[in-house]
Amino acid sequence: MKMKRPSGFLKGTCKHVVLIVIGLCFVYMVKISFDSEECDMARIHYVNPEHAKKVQKYAEQILQAQCRSSFVKKEMGRLFVDKYNMNSPPFIRKDIKTQEDVFKYEPPFGFHKLSGKLEELLELLPEYGLPEGLPSNSCRRCVVIGSGGVLRGLELGYALNQFDIVIRLNNAPVQGYADDVGNKTTIRMTYPEGAPLSQHEYYPNGLFVAVLFKSVDFDWIQAMVKNETLPLWMRLFFWKQVAEKIPVMPKQFRILNPIIIKETALDILEYPEPRPKFWGWDKNVPTIGVTAVVLATHLCDEVSLAGFGYDLNQPNTPLHYYDNLCMGAMNGQTMHNVTTETKFLQKLIKEGVVRDLSGGIYCDFCRKTSL
Question: Does the entry annotate any disulfide bonds, and if so which pairs (predicted)?
């Protein structure tokens, strides 16, 4: 008797094998693109004590001045007419199906064909707004803290802790760097591969805002919310190690509305529309940092930033305040257009829409003695 071939089983097995091979290739190629020689930390520029004092004074003046209600939204609307929506919800809510634009594009610009996974995830999240303890009727000041080496030696930590909402990016640490970067964290905004591995980097009662770039990111964040272990085979689809556990309660998780990324990239920065590709993106994905600045304009009345600025003319200098990665690593990446982003941030600062506390993008205070 001729045995029947278990075609369904084989097809399923082949499918998983192909997915694993593609995942391994993705990890390898991304690793190559991000690998860089370590830089000598001694090459970090010397911080003039007088300059550090000027930086600290500038931050103090901003905090002591009268907060201007709805200022940053109005200014963004003025600068980017018909491109900036002052009413865009910053985080995904359960009524998301009423917003058709969310499902127009694939991640990270939208959740096309992922409504089922999104619905499952939202069932686990009890809250969708800002954290408890922030008065809804107060004038809020935000600061978005980047990872730039420009923060080292400025001793801005105390001032940064005084802002109402402190947004930190990816795995940028506070342990051991509090004098320069503070230790208050209202929002930790990251994608799975960027989430801190150390549980000590999660601030009590702070929000964890997930930026979802691919289908498997939904599975990871769902595992984190449910305090479950992600299957080993699924971990192959991440280009670096991801956190095993996020030590916050389900009510502290938020999902970034992809409309914020779409608004940042396609409308404000005027990047080309996403197109189907077998591999990667067309340098039309904004960095987490710039996306966080736009998010902050939707959350707060005034916005400042610190630790921003890529000096690509000095490729052998350290990129971050916390490691030895070279600035030249940014030249090898193919996802972000840092030149366009720098011009955008410079425009915001020169127009007075946001303030650059550390002067890495545009030093508005270097020649001034007061606001």
Answer: 142-300
